[in-house]
Structure formats: C-alpha cells, structure tokens
Write a structure and sequence with these properties.
Layout lengths: L14 H11 L5 H21 L5 H25 L8 H23 L3 H23 L12 H20 L4 H31 L2
Helix pairs in contact: 2-3, 2-4, 3-4, 3-6, 4-5, 5-7, 6-7
Amino acid sequence: MVDTDRRPIAARRARWTKGLLRWLLATRVTPNQISVLSVVFAGLGAWALIEAPTRPWLFLAAAILVQLRLVCNLMDGLVAVEGGRASKVGPLFNEFPDRIADSLLIVALGYAAGEAWLGWAGALAAALTAYIRVSGAALGLGHDFRGPMAKQHRMAVMTLACLLAPVEAWWRADYALEAALWIILVGSVLTCIIRALAIAALLEDRP
C-alpha cells in the first residue's frame, strides 16, 4: 500500500509543470477552482465525444480536453501543497470533481462508440477503483494508487482512442472506441480486485 496521500506523477518534475505552477501562483486562483475547472474541461470533452461520430475532427478536440482535465488534476495538488493554498474543504474538491469528470468522459465515450452500456459500466468500475482507494485510506492504510487502470491509465487509453478514431472514420471503421471501453472496464475491475485484496492483506496483518 502506498504510504502517501499523493498520486505518484512524474510530470510534477517537468519544466513545463514548474513554469505553469509559477504562473498560477502569481494569480489568486485556488486549488478548488482548478478542480472545478477540470469538470468543465471534462464536460466539454464529453460533448465533443457525443458529437464526434458526425464530425470526426471533434475526436481530436476531445483528446485535447481529456489532457487539459489531467493538467487541472495535476496543478490543483501542486498549487495546494507547493503553493501553500490548501483549504479545509480541499479533500472534498480533490475527490468529487474527479469522479464527475471520469463519469462524464467514460459515459460519453460509450455513446460515441454506440455502446452506451459499456460507457456506464466503465464509469461505475472507475468510480469503484476510487471508492476502494479511499476506503483503504479511511482504514488508516494510506491511498493505493496502483493500476493497471488508475485514472491516468484510463485517460491515456481514452486519448489514444480519440486520436485513432478520426483515422478509422476515414476507413469507415470504428474499433478503437469500443476497444478502449473494454480495456477501461476490464482494467478497472481488475484494479478494484487488486486494491481490495491489498487492503484485506494489510488488515489481516494488523496485530
């Protein structure tokens, strides 16, 4: 079990991340506002996905919006911790907008692929991965961010599918979106099992 409350993200050390952090700290923006902005990007991404089957270029817009959502998820924590702007309600804003953003994007991906049920099932499984992680933390075991289908992995799969979809549209094929949905669903279920078993093992080891 990971003994930190922060997701391990290599991008925190990137030069562009540090530059963006300096710019944000020169403003009065709060981590909670950045968290809410991530939902805005996710909502726009969901709209783009739903409209994309008739306008394939919107798949590219969706891919960009997914990444902007992730940038917000990265920067809210940096502004809170490195910038010293954490608030008492920060833990709520750290979790709830993520669940909304995940659900919007994964459900919309299902509708874009013509497999709505897969989108809803994937969104539920994704939410359960977070529920199990937070449950472990509530039991005093820390946050377990392991995959194979943690948030960053889900968004990477979705981004790749969105980049492939316009190419497939040219060839009148549509395999990428459905494949991404299955990978997200199966991977999220596997992640739930792995995290739950890890929690159970740690509880069993308690004196």
